[in-house]
Amino acid sequence: MATAPQIDIGIEAKDRVAIAAGLSRLLADTFTLYLKTHNFHWNVTGPQFNSLHQMFMQQYTELWQALDEIAERIRALDVPAPGSQAAFAELTSIAEETGVPAAGEMLKQLVSGHEAVARTARAVFVSADAANDQPTADLLTQRLQVHEKTAWMLRSMLA
User: Fold this and answer.
1) Is 1 contained in some domain?
2) pLDDT of amino acid 21
3) Which residue windows are transmembrane per the record (predicted)?
4) Is 3 inside a domain boundary?
């Protein structure tokens, strides 16, 4: 069997590994937030049911699509992407919700989750910038825009 050619994209191997490690944390946070948002979509109740149910569906759909973009960037750096519950549990900064909180608490947890993902994404900029990795920086910028805007919208519902 032929071996794949070595990667030569202008980013040193050690830098690709460092960037991929940060992106792996971003992937884990995104997956954990996706799962929490989907759980809340299924289980929300109360007077805001319809609006929250629809909003959570839009949010988990966006997060689901982001998972593929993040994982594919890790693979483009020639590093395996994490893909198990155990790996995500080890890498995430977001606490899993095992119960069914009230709608207001769901909103608070999602604000916290989106802010956590934004912090994780922002932290990866250091290694991406140091390696002159514009595609990763672009991905991070896009993710930051989504998470900061979503956190603002969720916070606005709590006012």
Assistant:
1) no
2) 98
3) none
4) no
